[in-house]
Amino acid sequence: MSLSISEHTRWRTWLVELTVSLFIGLLGCTLCVWCSRQFPLEIYDIPAMDIWFDGDSPYLFQNFTNRYSPYMNRTSVHPLYPLVSTVPVQILRRLGVSNRLSEVRIVLGLAAAVWGCSFYALLRVLGNKRLDAVVFSLLALSSASVIFWIGLPEYHFIGSISLILALLLIAAGSDGRLSGVRYTVASALSLSMTVTNWMLGLVAAVVGQGPKRAIQISANALCVVVVLWSFQKPICPSAGFFLVSQRGEVTYMTRPNVARLAAASQAFFLHGMTLPAIGTTPNDWNPLEKAHRLTVQVPPGGHRNIPQGFASVIWISLCLLGLAGMVVSGADKTLKITLLVTILGGYALHLVYGAEVFLYSANYLPLLVVVASLGSQTRYRWSVLGLATVLIAMNLVLNFAQFHRAISLFENQYAIFKASRS
Q1: For the chain, what are the domain ranges?
Q2: Contact 278/409 with Cβ under 8 angstroms?
Q3: DSSP calls for 340-373
Q4: What distance in Å separates the CA atoms of residue 379 and residue 381, rounded to the nearest whole number?
Q5: Which residues pair with 282 in a beta bridge?
Q6: Distances in Å between the alpha carbon of 46 and those of 4, 51, 56, 77, 290?
Q7: pLDDT along the chain (422 residues), means of 10
C-alpha cells in the first residue's frame, strides 16, 4: 500500500513538473511569435545586413528557407546549424507550409518552446525549488537578450539551447557505464552550434571524467559532429566544413585597449539583462554605407538612465548572491565548475571578438541567470526571489520600451539607406 502511495506521489510530482515546464515553453513560444511579428519585413532584406546590432538575420533568413543558399559559409564556425534550421523548414514545406515567413516563425517558435522547457528543467536539476525555477525562468524570458533575439533567425539563441541540453546531460545521473556516452553527447551538443562553445564540453569531460578519458570523449564527440555534418552536406551543398582554416575570423577580432575592455565587460555582464540607451554607429564592415548599425556599446549608446541603472544594480546583486550560492549549493560539482569556466571563457573571448557583444548575448545570458538562481539556495532565498521579481517587472517595462525604440531606429536607418541608393 505504501509503495502504491509512493508511486502515485512520484507520478503526480512528475506531472506537475512536466506541466510547469510546458507552461514555460509555451510562454517562450508566445514571446517568440509576438516579437517576430513586431519586426518590419525589411529586416530580412540583404541590404539590411548588420543594421540590427550587427546581426546576420538577412543571410540566415535565406539559409532557413533555401537549402542552396549561397550564404552558408558560416557553418565553418556553426557546424550543424542547418540541421536545426534549414532541415525543419524543408520538412514543413513537405507538410504543406508554403509561406517562407511562416516557415521561419514556426521553427523559431518550436525552438523557443524547447528553450523554455529545457531551461526550467536545468534550474530544477541544479536543486532550485519549483517556485524559484519559475521565477528565474521568467527573469530569463524578460531579459533583453531573449526579447531582442528570440524572434529572429540568428545563431546564438538557438545555439544556447545546445548548451542548456549539454548541461542537463552532464547533470543527469551518476557516473557509471553510460557516463562516457553521456559526456560524449554533451560535448557534441556544445560543439554543434558554435565551435567556441565546445569549451563547455571539453571542460566538463576533464572535470567529470578525468584528463585521460576526456581525450577519448572529446575525440568521439568530434567524430559525431563530423558524421552529422557529412549527412548535412548533401542537403545543404554550400555548407562549409568547420575543420578548415579559420583565417577569416581575424576580421572579427578587435584590439583589446582600455576602452574596448570596459565596453565589452559592460556588454557581457549587464546589457543582456537590461538594455541601456541605444545609439547608432557607422557599419564596421561597410563604413561607406549611409545606414548605421544599432549599438549599445559605442557612445551615445550604452548610457543608463536611473531606472536602467537601478535594474543593473539589482542584477549585479543577484549574480553576487548566486556566486555565494554556488559555494553552498548541493548541485553537481562538475556542473558548477563547467558553468563558471564556460562563462569566464566566453567573457575572455568577447573581450577581443565581435564588434557588438550584445549580438552574442543570447548565448551566454542563460548561463549567467543559472548562476544567479543559485542565490535562492542561500539563507537569503526570499530576498533573492524578491529582487528577481522586481527585476522582472522592471525588465518588462524597460526592455520592451527599448525593443520598440530599436525597431523605430532600424526603420529610420533602413529608410536612409534606401534613399541613398535611389
Answers
A1: 2-421
A2: yes
A3: HHHHHHHHHHHTTB-S-GGGGHHHHHHHHHHHHH
A4: 5
A5: 292
A6: 61, 10, 9, 21, 15
A7: 62 89 97 96 90 92 92 88 93 91 95 97 93 97 97 93 93 68 93 93 91 93 94 90 72 80 92 94 65 87 91 96 88 87 93 89 94 94 96 97 96 85 68
